[in-house]
Write a structure and sequence with these properties.
about 850 residues; alpha+beta; Multidrug efflux transporter AcrB transmembrane fold; 4-stranded antiparallel β-sheet; 12 strands; elongated; disordered C terminus; cell membrane; transmembrane; transmembrane helix; SSD domain-containing protein; MMPL_dom
């Protein structure tokens, strides 16, 4: 607003402090009231928009087959092997107890694995039952074992030879090896598949039932996780020889929420009650100013979270960092007003006149810095990740409120609070004046040196790799991360890939050509170094064929008709004319029917085959891979299917594939958003500074800090993931703050005071240098506190942002002044209206 109106506004604020304070409190209450709508969402699916193609593909696979959301107990005997009687009894106990976990649909372990075998008396009669029920071939077989539940007594009664035989069967079973047990029998798993309630279930539900169902959806992950953790504790107490680790998608979901809540409960208090108060008081030496600033920060946080509630935004892992980010951002406006206000009082002005003058001088640059910061965070709406968009919008609300409270509530509070200032010139301002003399005197050296150093560091940007690993979203202090890494190294991986292969024909999976193609893909996938395990229905069919041929090892193969004796489920007589495909199709259909009807409740084949047998799902367990590696593997599989199964309908997806795609797409989306923000902010600065030349010149100190920061990151870290992809957008608005404040003071000296370029630079350092230093220190400390987060996405974002802001201050102090003095000509003396 014009400065005469700014003065009127300032006079009104200091003349009606109680009215301003009351209005501010009402605004806080109105916005904060929306916090009652906030919900904590723990499902990793919140990271994907509803129209995300990989999410759609994954949901289609999930809806066609059994759900793949799981919690996995990873069990390691401290002494002995998995095939110790006490360990087997513990695994059996856990397998039975796991059915009590809420929303459980399936439990898989070595003790309930449904094996097939033939009776000693009749090798044409196949049985399906729990692995521990398998009798020795020399013993008489009790047919009740086919459907009998395993008991601990049965395990105790097993002889050493029978245990050894069971071990041999397990270690040679492709469905188990490297999936629920490792080759040396030192680690095993109990995998619990759950079907969590989701939002679509709310359709058609109203009133109290709607609220109850909504609560059930929001608390489902917590319920499952608590039950799983309780069973973990019970199992280790029951058998102290066992180490039990937890991984799986459900545990990942829970860790997202727990890590975020832990950050909010620890990092935010550190910011509010330690870092910010100490830094502010140390820099401005004013208790009342520090107290008022902290109150504004609290108001801004409350309003931002309340605004998120009004906007229907849910609390997700990135959203838990909002209080820390808003607290950091809200400091800047207060500091500039307070520093100028205290300087005025130090120079003999009354409290009222000093505050009005501070508002007059700082209103335009504070408004500009606030709006550019809001624009920076609003660029996060270009993000492919809904929680990052939500975070950007919520912080934008907080920054807006911080501006409003800084120019209203802060002046009003300072009029009511006692303010003491020293008549002596502070050491900080004395140091800043000396530093200004150094910059002016050494400008001819500083310009080339800063340019060369900046270019040299920026040259390291290509060392950064656009990459991500979603397991590494958590640091190594988090149990889930440690347990997942252990599982990947010793058993199987959390990373998976699911492929649904649809023949588009009922019972089409029984066609011999299809089964052969499926087996070819399995063999191709097993050759890939990233693949730990492949689960396919061909393994089931080969085992069924083996069982129907007297359990002979050489018959572990897909069935096929032949004219010769051997492993042939269909024997053709010499000269017989028949459609071989029809025979095989009928045979495999019979195998599937026998097997399916023999399985107990909860262990159907729907995890691999759809209802009309037109499609089958292959599940691949992968090593912990980066997004680049996941996408590379996906491309290889896609090319294989195009070449070998062009007529089939192939759908592939998984959480690993989804995160890999969104991580890459998000980076390019945010670069686009940053470019738009840069254009918009540049136009604003040209208009505000009323100078095309200075507006264009401001691009240098606005862009270089981000480029230098990413160069530093490339030197020391070298990987840019989802969290860092938003740093350019969110820091752009913040970096502009320093430039706007310095250039506005420089122009005021040139236009109002008629100073030459050297004196104008010294004036800018004197009036705003200390405030910029204070705000940068607080901002850097604030984002470094965020860097303490155990959620790596937030941690890396905080660290890189802190680096960017520190570099921005250096650039504005050592590069911008020489540029201004190099390119400036004498301006006409005039007072801005």
């Amino acid at each position: 607003m014009p400065e005469n109106n700014t003065v009127k506004f300032g006079r009104f604020v200091i003349s009606h402090p109680w009215l301003i304070i009351l209005a501010s409190i009402l605004l806080v209450v109105a916005t904060t009231f929306g916090a009652r709508f906030l919900e904590i969402k723990t499902d990793y699916r919140v990271f994907f928009a509803e129209d995300n193609p990989q999410l759609i593909a994954f949901e289609n696979i999930q809806n066609t087959y059994d759900k793949a959301d799981n919690a996995m107990f990873v069990i390691t005997p401290k002494e002995g092997s998995v095939f110790d009687r006490e360990t087997l009894k513990s695994i059996h106990w856990l397998t039975e107890q796991a059915w009590q976990i809420p929303y459980t649909t399936r439990v898989d372990s070595i003790t309930n694995y449904q094996h097939t075998w033939v009776t000693p008396e009749d090798e044409d009669y196949m049985l399906v039952g729990a692995l521990l029920c398998i009798p020795d071939k020399s013993s008489n077989f009790d047919s009740e074992c086919e459907h009998e539940s395993v008991t601990e007594q049965m395990i105790d009664d097993l002889s050493d030879a029978e245990i050894k035989r069971l071990q041999d069967i397990v270690l040679h079973e492709p469905q188990l090896l490297n999936r629920v047990i490792n080759p040396d029998s030192s680690v095993t798993a109990v995998n619990v598949t759950v079907q969590l309630p989701q939002d679509p279930d709310l359709e058609g539900i109203e009133g109290k039932a709607w609220k109850e169902k909504k609560t059930e959806i929001l608390t489902a992950v917590t319920k499952v996780s608590e039950h799983v953790q309780d069973l973990q504790t019970q199992l280790m107490e029951r058998n102290p020889n066992l180490e039990v680790r937890l991984t799986g998608v459900v545990m990942m979901n829970n860790t997202f929420a727990e890590t975020g809540k832990n950050d909010m409960m620890t990092l935010t208090p550190i910011m509010l009650f330690l870092v910010i108060p100490l830094a502010l008081y140390f820099m401005i030496r004013s208790i009342s100013g520090t107290v008022a600033s902290v109150v504004i920060i609290i108001f801004s946080i409350m309003g931002a979270l309340g605004g998120a509630g009004w906007l229907g935004i849910a609390m997700t892992a990135p959203m838990f960092s909002v209080p820390t980010v808003v607290a950091t951002m809200a400091v800047a406006d207060s500091v500039h007003l307070l520093v100028t206000f205290l300087q005025g009082m130090r120079h003999g002005m009354s409290k009222q006149d000093a505050m009005v003058e501070s508002i007059r001088i700082n209103m335009m640059p504070i408004f500009l810095t606030s709006i550019t910061t809001v624009i920076g965070f609003m660029t996060m709406n270009f993000s492919e990740v809904p929680p990052l968009r939500d975070m950007g919008n919520t912080v934008a609300v907080g920054v807006t409120l911080a501006f409003i409270f800084s120019v209203t509530f802060l002046p009003a509070m300072m009029m009511l609070l006692p303010v003491k200032v020293s008549d002596k010139k502070s050491k900080g301002h004395h140091w800043m004046d000396s530093f200004a003399d150094f910059v002016v005197n050494k400008r001819k050296i500083l310009l080339p040196v800063m340019a060369v150093v900046s270019i040299a560091i920026i040259a390291a940007i290509p060392k950064n790799e656009l990459n991500d690993e979603f397991v590494k979203y958590f640091d190594e202090s988090i149990d889930f991360r440690v347990d997942s890494d252990y599982t990947a190294e010793n058993l199987t991986g959390l990373y998976t890939a699911f492929y649904s292969i649809d023949t588009k024909t009922g019972s089409g999976i029984h066609e011999p050509e299809f089964m052969a193609m499926l087996q070819d893909f399995v063999e191709y996938a097993e050759q890939q170094p990233e693949v730990l395990h492949v689960q396919s229905y061909t393994d089931v069919m080969k085992r069924l064929n083996k069982s129907m041929n007297g359990d002979r090892e050489e018959c572990y193969a897909l069935p096929k008709p032949s004219l010769e004796e051997g492993c042939n489920a269909v024997l053709l007589e010499d000269g017989e004319v028949a459609e071989l495909g029809t025979l095989i199709r009928e045979l495999t259909a019979q195998y599937t029917l026998i097997y399916e009807t023999s399985l107990p409740r909860g262990l159907s084949i729907n995890n691999q085959v759809n209802s009309d047998k037109s499609a089958t799902r292959i599940q691949l367990a992968l090593e912990n891979l980066s997004s680049v590696q996941v996408l590379n593997l996906e491309d290889r599989f896609s090319n294989w299917f195009k070449q070998n199964a062009p007529a089939m309908e192939i759908s592939g997806s998984s959480p690993a594939i989804m995160f890999a795609h969104i991580g890459q797409n998000n980076i390019y989306s945010m670069l686009k958003g940053t470019a738009w923000a840069l254009v918009l902010i540049s136009l604003l600065l040209i208009f505000a500074l009323r100078s095309l030349k200075l507006g264009m010149l401001s691009l240098i100190p606005n862009i270089v800090p981000m480029a230098v920061a990413f160069g530093i990151w490339g030197i020391f870290q070298g990987q840019i993931g989802m969290g860092l992809s938003v740093v350019t957008g969110m820091t752009l608005g913040i970096v502009v703050d320093d430039t706007v404040h310095f250039m506005s003071k420089y122009l005021r000296a040139r236009r109002e005071k008629g100073l030459d370029k050297e004196a104008a630079v010294k004036y800018a350092f004197h009036t705003v240098g200390m405030a910029l230093t204070v705000t940068t220190i607080v901002l850097v400390l604030g984002f470094l506190v965020l860097g303490m987060s155990h959620y790596v996405m937030n941690s890396h974002m905080g660290i890189l942002t802190a680096i960017t802001l520190a570099v921005a201050l250096i650039i504005d102090f050592l590069l911008l002044p020489p540029l201004l003095m190099l390119g400036s000509k004498k301006l006409k003396d005039k007072v801005a209206n």
